[in-house]
Amino acid sequence: MQPTRVVVFSFGVLIIIGTILLMLPISSKTGETTPFINALFTSTSAVCVTGLVVVDTGTYWSTFGQLVILGLIQAGGLGTMTIVTLFALLMGRKISLRERLTIQEAYNQYSMEGIVRLVREIMGITAIIEGTGAIVLILRFMRDMPPLKAAYYGIFHAVSAFNNAGFDLMGDFKSLTGYVDDFTVNLTVMLLIIIGGIGFTVIVDVLRQKKFKKLTLHSKLVITMTVFLILAGAGSFFLLEYNNPGTMKPLDMSGKVLASLFQSVTPRTAGFNTISEADMTIASKFITIILMFIGASPGGTGGGIKTSTFGVILFTVLSIIDGRDDTELYQKRIPQFVVYRSLGIIFISMCVIIGTTLVLSIVQQSDFITELFESTSAFGTVGLSLGLTTELTTVGKAFIIFNMYAGRVGPLSLALAIGQRRKNIRGYKYPEEKIIVG
After folding, report:
1. Is a pLDDT exceeding 70 seen at residue 115?
2. Alpha helices per DSSP H over 142-245
3. Residues 6+ apart with CB under 8 A from 267
4. CB atoms within 10 A of CB 117
5. CA neighbours within 13 Å on the CB side: how many for 154?
């Protein structure tokens, strides 16, 4: 089996295992068997680090069921090949060439050089960041709950945030709305989301190089787009929701700023929310859809078309407007095959989202913006919802499940299928002829 198929297949196997475990009576608090479609939906959402749920995580699932979800989040966020490689290294087994190729595919690397070292660094970074985030959240939650429960909640939400999953244990689908103006919870969760979504390749590059000018072009582009999207999104939400009585109007100035920043960060495939998504203005919902579509960065725990894909197209357009033939950024030229791959990813991603939205408009009794929001949230592996998830029909659930799976493995598979270095297998080229466009 080719490396690309191994990556896609491994996620499917993990989803099936999670579905079986969640269907067990021990997984629900009532001791009843969970219906197959609900267990499959939850397992897919956890493995694909989405966060969309048809039943409330905190009140429906037992501790065993919640631990299963937590394990699926961690495995899905890091990638199954990372987990397998870790166990192989612990057992002292040498990583084969085929396994190295699969890891290379999983992290979208163009070279196998240092690939095993990268896996070791990824595991170390994950342990340190999740552990630090968990400690901070535990200390904060101990003010509201018993120490043992605070420890459990702190670990669960730290893992969920770093893996951009969006699952929470607060109950009644409240997410983190009870901590809307809490600096500790907001800043900790936002940092976990940003670090987890920025991509392990970028994190390792920053740790090695220390200075921005020494970073690779990929890291510079990802950091630039991440900062731009967070600030632009926060400013937009602040202006649009400032006097909205259903969201930010009751908050003081610091609360409004925190809520605006959090609302800008969380659509980047995280899925937590501190304000009511359903009560936002139409403009804010549409901006959220755009942010969900763009998503996180390659090689991280998030979904979407990725910041680098959006950045490549953005700077390509700017280069065209400036009259340049090549896409240029930070005094470097981006290869044409990367531009073609970015266009392919965006086009096919839009087709998937439009198709799912069309199906939802047929099988669900809701408005268009809600259906588009749900489809984009699933494909971008975000987890935000305007309330449609719990009302989905069986057909609606099936298509959202497909969207979540396609969003987690689809952009990666598309990048591998479309983005390989072009080879002129014919040995000749057809004559060129211009076409009028625009």
Report:
1. no
2. 147-162, 183-197, 200-209, 217-241
3. 233, 288, 291, 292, 380, 382, 384
4. 10
5. 24
